Amino acid sequence: MKKLKTILHSNSLLLFCFLFLFFYLFISFAFTKSKYQKNDTFFEGTILSKKIYEGYATLEIRGKEKILVQYTSSREQIEQLKIGDIISLKGTLELSSTNRNFHLFNYQKYLRGKQIFWIVKTDKITLKKHSRGLYLWKDKLIRKIEARKAPSYYFSFLLGDSSKLEKKTLYQELGISHLFAVSGMHILFIAGALSKLFQKICSKKMVSFFFVTILLTLYIWLLSDSASANRAYLLYIFSFLNKYYKIELSPLKLLFYVAMISIIRNPFCILQIGFQFSFLICFFLMLTKRNSEGYIKDLLVTSTFAFLVSVPLSLYHFHQIHLGSIFFNMIAVPIVTTILFPLSFFSFLFPIFENIFCLCIEIFEFVMGCFRTFDFLKLTFQAFTIFFLFLYYSLLIFGFIKNKKFFIFFFLLLSFHFLIPYMDTHYWIDMIDVGEGDSILIRYPHLEKTILIDCGGQLPFGKKRTSQVDNILIPYMKSLGVKKIDVLILTHGDYDHMGNAIDLVEKFKIEKIVLNCGVYNDLEKELVSILNKKKLKYYSCIKELKLATNKLYFLNTREYDNENDNSSVIYTELNHYKFLFMGDASEEKEMDILNKYKLNSIDFLKVGHHGSKTSSSKAFINAIIPKYSLISVGKNNRYGHPNKEVLENLGNSKIYRTDIDGGIQIKLNKNGYKIRTCNP
User: Fold this and answer.
1) Second label for 100, Cα 20 to 30 Å away, from 106, 261, 275, 431?
2) What 3-state class would DSSP assign to 203?
3) Contact 655, 631 (CB under 8 A)
4) Where residue 388 falls among pLDDT bands split at 50, 70, 90?
């Protein structure tokens, strides 16, 4: 035992483990390959998890390795499948998508963090064997939770799955979403309760620890690989053994060994946001461990330190922090830890108390909803780079260890980063990839003005729809440091150009809106009704718009009998470069524009109607002679856009397409321009 203590306390061992982890991660990321081949079409495995949507489901199955199956079928057939069932299916392997716009969520990295390399799409699954043993109990548990009055909160507190929470966005904005994932706090609560129970049955600590560990292991298995729960689980085991055998390892060394085991088990876990937050916050809290000074003061200090540590990671992933989150955590943590979390277990075991749990949830949601009045404390930052991330954490470590006054440099760097967009002297034009739709963001130097031309809109057909406002538009603008839109220009009333407008108006600050000429359709009428209620300024059929030292010209010709030709066609010059945004204008309007306006040598053309054959006639393109052609088009869209003939018409220009290139970003200065694409 003495020899073991000496080895574990050795700094040489720590150095060896650190170097081992470094090379282990390097080898894993560089050389780990899938056990499946790209041309494999037959798959068999056990269902590990299941999520049901409208008309389809995603199944995580384990065969040779974990794969994600997208199963299209009736809800009845989907619900017949249970967790633990062994199934077989035929399909083709596809790589998951990366982020199609700069700085946004990378689904491929997310799945890689769960050790999933491939997605398989299928519409037929064969059941080979029914669920048995623990899987059967897990499936029954999930079905019982789904039948409860507040299933989303039971899923959060009991199984660590907060994806179904209706108020999830609110909790994320307030900085308290971590309370709805099973973490160290929850594991310690469960371990403490079980320890007291077993100690009353058996006075021997090791026997009690043995049974608690077995039950905790079963519970961790139910959670399906929660990084924070795994950390707390391993830390509980190591801490007990450390104390029981009097090894006297410091908490920081224990945390390091726990991290090492987690990484060896799954080297890709470092890509998980939960892993990053969990271990970093735990590390810094251990680094600053101090004697208790009372519950309130301890809670304030812990909340403050946790906030300081989470700031760089929050800004790296979400581009926003809430200065009030320290206060919100001081209110929410006691409520969740002493009331909601214990009551979720108690009311689940004894349904007679379920109404009390639901009442407490309603009160909690009301209180948290009241904190929306503090939205002015939300700060949006331009996307962090890895360099700034490491720099900030280096400063934090020095601040914690060396001198608390060193924190001032942390806040100075944070302030500097906040001001970066306002120091930028360039014009930026961003064609945002919103699929089969249009959305173009124009940013002026020093962020003096921001213009959004169209805002996309996922078409209302198909079985899968996601919020482009929540998942693309707002996160993307936040990542650029954009806090408001000065002018939202909606070129016309088609859904793929303004379908997201109502949602965007409700969730983002917009100064004024410009609509096109012609009679309003139903979608435009609905938007106007909301604008009137919110008392937002809007205009229609204008000729020009002056912003700072620049003008946007609306090339109106006449009123047409269709929405596409009534599109606002916009011409502007930025740093002497000519831009022409064509909306969905057809050949007829193109000819009218040529007859009314003198246009030639256009530097950047936003191609009309996603490259449809109804637009971009050869005569029009030959007249304006675009240098660059930008096509906003959905990948594998049902319309076959862009048209082959149109691409031939544009052949003398350099063509960029969102379906191939992802988001497109143009940076202008007085000496030239740079174009970069977010190749998915």
Assistant:
1) 275
2) coil
3) yes
4) confident
Q: Are 663 and 432 in contact (CB under 8 A)?
A: yes
Per the document, the length of the chain is 680
**Residue 94 shares a structural domain with residue 171:** no
Nearest 5 degrees, angle CA 619-CA 622-CA 625?
A: 145
Record the tokens describing residue 503, joined without a space. 């949602």
d(CA 420, CA 574): 21
Whether 418 and 429 map to the same domain: the answer is no
Residue 4 lies in a domain: no
Kindly state whether residue 155 falls inside one of the protein's structural domains: yes
Chain centre distance of CA 389: 18
Pair 593, 571: CB distance under 8 Å: no
Both tokens of 562, joined, read 């269709």
5-9, 167-171, 223-227: which is most confident:
167-171
Count other C-beta atoms under 10 Å from residue 546's C-beta. Answer: 8
How many independent structural domains does the chain possess?
4
Cα angle for residues 223, 161, 433 (degrees, 5° grid)? 125
Mean pLDDT computed over every residue of the chain: 88
Segment 441-448 mean pLDDT: 96
Residue with tokens 């059967």: 136
DSSP class of residue 147 equals T
Mean pLDDT in residue range 370-398: 85
Q: According to the model, what pLDDT value does residue 290 have?
A: 66
pTM: 0.89
**Gap between the terminal Cα atoms of the chain:** 54
Structure confidence at residue 402 (pLDDT): 63
Q: How far apart are CA 509 and CA 532, in angstroms?
A: 15
> Which residues form the domain of 395?
389-422
Rounded CA-CA distance 555/173 in Å is 41
The verdict on residue 122 lying in a domain is yes
pLDDT at 1 over 60: no
Pairing of strands 485-489, 510-515: parallel
**In sequence order, what are the beta bridge partners of 573?**
578
- Sheet of 510-515: strand order equals 537-540, 510-515, 485-489, 450-453, 440-443, 427-431, 664-669, 672-677
- DSSP calls for 401-467: HT-GGGHHHHHHHHHHHHHHHHH--SEEEEE---SSS--EEEE-GGG--EEEE------S-SS----
Q: Is the pLDDT of residue 462 over 50?
A: no
The CATH number for 465's domain is 3.60.15.10
Q: What tokens were used for 26?
A: 């390097």
Please tell me the distance from the alpha carbon of residue 655 to that of residue 605, in angstroms, as a whole number.
Answer: 10
Q: Say yes or no: 447 and 522 in one domain.
A: yes
pLDDT of residue 463: 41
| DSSP alpha helix (H) spans, 535-615 | 587-596
- Separation CA 14–CA 216 (nearest Å): 28
3-state SS class at 149: coil
**CA torsion sign, 556 to 559 to 560 to 561?**
positive
352 and 494 co-located in one domain:
no
Q: How many other CB atoms are found less than 10 A from the CB of residue 512?
A: 15
Residue 473 DSSP one-character state: I
In the three-class reduction of DSSP (H, G, I as helix; E, B as strand; rest coil), residue 54 is classed as coil
Residues 359 and 325 in one domain: yes
Q: Residues 6 or more apart from 350 whose CB is under 8 A from it?
A: none
